[in-house]
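Private note to self, pasted from the team thread so I don't lose it. C-alpha cells:
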C-alpha cells in the first residue's frame, strides 16, 4: 500500500467529511473520513433534502437497491425538513441490535467512503473510535464494501480490529468482545456481526473484499508493543499522537491537573521514537506537527510522515459549520483564540480539547441552559446489573437516571453530550420540541493559534490545497 507523507485527521462528527477527504486524496495525500455517527449524519443529510443529490447518488451504487430505497422512503424529505422540525432519532446499539440498524450503519459508511473515493485513485481512510465499540463492525464492513484503503482507530486498545478486518474481507461472521462495567474475568460479552445473514448473497455478488491497512492511534511504546503482541491480525503501522493534538487525548501518566485545570503532561508522556523505530513498522507523528518544519522534523526522526487535523478542520473544505469555523480562524489571527484541554467534558473519560467560543458549550451560561438528555446514545457504556443482566448508561444523561443505573455522582460532573454537540458543530443541530436547539462544541489542537500560516495574503480563510502546499514546502525544496 502506498504510504502518504500527510494523513488528514479523521475529526469529530462529519468535520472530516467525504468532501474534505476526497479533496486531500486528490492532492496526493491520504484523505480520511470520520466514521463516528455516520448513520445519523447520512439520515440527517437526507432529512435536509440532500440538496445536491450526493447521498442519493451513492445509495444508487449500493449492491442492495431495495434497502437503499427503504432508507430513502423513511428519511428523505424533498426540499428538506422545516428548520424547527427535529431530526428523526435512530435506534441505539445494544448487544442484540436489530438487523435494520446494522444495515443502516453499513450503508451509511459505504456512502461516505464511496463519495470520498469517487472520481480519483487516491488514498482514503476511515477513522473510528475503539470506545464506540458496538457500531464498529458494521461501520468497517460498509467502508470495505466501498473500497476503503486504511482504517485508523484510537481512544482505546483496538487489538480485535486487525483480525476482524481479515474476516470481513471474506464476508465471514465475526464478533466483538465488548467492555462491560462490573464484568468479571469469567464474563465474555460479545456482539455478533454476520455479513451474509444481514446481506444474503452479497458475498457472491461482490466477491472477496480488499483488506484495508490498519493504523492504530497510540501514545506510548508500551501500547505499540501490546498491539503487536496481542492483536488478532496484522498491524500495518502506527500514528503516534501527542497531547497537543485535538479531540480526545490520552490521559497523562501522572494523572494530575495543572493550575489552569488541564491535565498535566510531563516528559514521562513523551514517546521514545527510537524504540518505535525498532518495531520496524511505518509511523506518522501527530500533535503540533502541522507545519513544513514539523513534517521535516518527523521525517528526520524516521517517521513516514505526519497526521494533521487542526489545519484541515478549519479550512474551507471541512464539514465544520461555517460561522463557528470563521469565528475560530478570526480569533486565531487576532491572537486571542484559546484551546482548553477539558478533563471532564467527554463521557468516555478521556481528556477532550475544546475551543473557547461564545455560543458554544464552553460558555458556562450555554452549558447550564441545556437540559441533560441522552438521545443519540453512541457513547453509552454497557454495565452489569446486580441481577446479572446488562444495562446501558451515559455520564451525560440526567443525573438521577445515571445514579439509578449504578453510576456515581462524581462521574457526571462537567460532562457534556458530545454526540449532540459534535453533530451541531457540523451543522446537524437537533431541534427539541420545546424549541431548544443543540449547541456545538468545537475541538482543535493547540496548533490552532498558528493557523495563519496557511492563509494566503489578503484573505481571512484558506483551502485544503493551501494546507498541503504549505506542509510540503520544505520537502519540495530538497534536492
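Design output:
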Amino acid at each position: 500500500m502506498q504510504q502518504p507523507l500527510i494523513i488528514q485527521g479523521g475529526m469529530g462528527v462529519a468535520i472530516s467529511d467525504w468532501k474534505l477527504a476526497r479533496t486531500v486524496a486528490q492532492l496526493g495525500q491520504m484523505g480520511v473520513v470520520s466514521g463516528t455517527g455516520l448513520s445519523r449524519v447520512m439520515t440527517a443529510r437526507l432529512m435536509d433534502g440532500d440538496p445536491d443529490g450526493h447521498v442519493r447518488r451513492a445509495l444508487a451504487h449500493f449492491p442492495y437497491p431495495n434497502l437503499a430505497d427503504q432508507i430513502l422512503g423513511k428519511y428523505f424529505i424533498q426540499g428538506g425538513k422545516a428548520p424547527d422540525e427535529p431530526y428523526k432519532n435512530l435506534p441505539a446499539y445494544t448487544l442484540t441490535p436489530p438487523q435494520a440498524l446494522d444495515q443502516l450503519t453499513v450503508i451509511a459508511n459505504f456512502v461516505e467512503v464511496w463519495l470520498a473515493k469517487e472520481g480519483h485513485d487516491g488514498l482514503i481512510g476511515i477513522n473510528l473510535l475503539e470506545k464506540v465499540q458496538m457500531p464498529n463492525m458494521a461501520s468497517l464492513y460498509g467502508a470495505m464494501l466501498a473500497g476503503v484503503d486504511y482504517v485508523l482507530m484510537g481512544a482505546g486498545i483496538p487489538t480485535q480490529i486487525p483480525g476482524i478486518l481479515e474476516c470481513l474481507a471474506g464476508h465471514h461472521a465475526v464478533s466483538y468482545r465488548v467492555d462491560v462495567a462490573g464484568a468479571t474475568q469469567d464474563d465474555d460479552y460479545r456482539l455478533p456481526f454476520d455479513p451474509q445473514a444481514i446481506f444474503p448473497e452479497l458475498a457472491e455478488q461482490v466477491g472477496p473484499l480488499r483488506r484495508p491497512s490498519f493504523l492504530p492511534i497510540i501514545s506510548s511504546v508500551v501500547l505499540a508493543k501490546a498491539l503487536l503482541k496481542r492483536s488478532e491480525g496484522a498491524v500495518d503501522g502506527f500514528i503516534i499522537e501527542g497531547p497537543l493534538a485535538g479531540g480526545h487525548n490520552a490521559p497523562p501518566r501522572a494523572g494530575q491537573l495543572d493550575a489552569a485545570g488541564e491535565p498535566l503532561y510531563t516528559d514521562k508522556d513523551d514517546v521514545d521514537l527510537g524504540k518505535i523505530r525498532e518495531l520496524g513498522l511505518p509511523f506518522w507523528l501527530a500533535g503540533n506537527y502541522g507545519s513544513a518544519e514539523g513534517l521535516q522534523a518527523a521525517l528526520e526522526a524516521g517517521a513516514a510522515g505526519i497526521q494533521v487535523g487542526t489545519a484541515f478542520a478549519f479550512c474551507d473544505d471541512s464539514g465544520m459549520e461555517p460561522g463557528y469555523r470563521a469565528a475560530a480562524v478570526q480569533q486565531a489571527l487576532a491572537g486571542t483564540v484559546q484551546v482548553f484541554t477539558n478533563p471532564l467534558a467527554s463521557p468516555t473519560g478521556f481528556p477532550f480539547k475544546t475551543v473557547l467560543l461564545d455560543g458554544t458549550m464552553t460558555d458556562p451560561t450555554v452549558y447550564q441552559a441545556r437540559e441533560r438528555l441522552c438521545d443519540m446514545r453512541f457513547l453509552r457504556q454497557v454495565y452489569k446489573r446486580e441481577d446479572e443482566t446488562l444495562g446501558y448508561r451515559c455520564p451525560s444523561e440526567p443525573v438521577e437516571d445515571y445514579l439509578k443505573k449504578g453510576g456515581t455522582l462524581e462521574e457526571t460532573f462537567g460532562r457534556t453530550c458530545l454526540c449532540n454537540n459534535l453533530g451541531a458543530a457540523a451543522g446537524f443541530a437537533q431541534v427539541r420540541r420545546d424549541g431548544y436547539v443543540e449547541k456545538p462544541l468545537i475541538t482543535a489542537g493547540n496548533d490552532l493559534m498558528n493557523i495563519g500560516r496557511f492563509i494566503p495574503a489578503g484573505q481571512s480563510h484558506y483551502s485544503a490545497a493551501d494546507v498541503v502546499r504549505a506542509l510540503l514546502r520544505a520537502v519540495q525544496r530538497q534536492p
